[in-house]
Design goal:
two-stranded antiparallel sheet, 166 residues, 6 helices
């Protein structure tokens, strides 16, 4: 069982430490249920760290095109089943989680660059930036629809410091 935010586990995974079941769908399910119940219950627990871990798990699942937990193999994305490709996807997923949490795509790229990946190249930077922008945009569309103003893309992220007056 993985406890805490999941950021240390993702950072270790990206730096080459093999941690069993760190990017599995069961881990994602438990993480989501735990975060939802702790935030709804009013506990002093943040949702930003688990979003980073959840983004990494989703990206790892997409890169593999299969699930060992559900015993399904879609036989797509076979090219991405190598370890370095999976690691690149996990970097992008972690960056997308940061971008969604704080509404900052560049912050996601910087997090992934500084804290996560040991192996880096320029094309990976652009791919991770694209993933962060898509994540922020998707969250913005969902939040604007949820608040009854579809298409009004003024909701920055899930962490809100309030409105500042001039």
């Amino acid at each position: 069982m993985l406890l805490g935010s999941g950021i240390p586990q993702v950072k270790c995974y990206l730096n080459g430490v093999k941690i069993p079941r760190v990017v599995r769908i069961k881990t994602l399910a438990v993480k989501v249920i735990g975060v939802v119940t702790s935030v709804v219950g009013g506990l002093a627990a943040g949702k930003e760290g688990p979003m980073i871990h959840s983004g990494a798990v989703i990206a790892a699942g997409i890169s593999q095109g299969k699930s060992t937990s559900m015993k399904r193999d879609l036989r797509i994305f076979k090219y991405f089943r190598e370890d370095h490709e999976k690691r690149d996807f996990v970097s992008g997923g972690a960056a997308a989680g940061v971008a969604a949490a704080f509404g900052a795509p560049v912050g996601g790229v910087l997090f992934s660059l500084e804290e996560g990946a040991s192996f880096w190249n320029q094309s990976l930077t652009w791919r991770i930036f694209f993933a962060s922008v898509v994540s922020t945009f998707t969250l913005n569309v969902i939040l604007s629809t949820y608040h009854g103003h579809p298409g009004e893309l003024t909701y920055a992220g899930l962490l809100n410091f309030g409105k500042f007056d001039n």
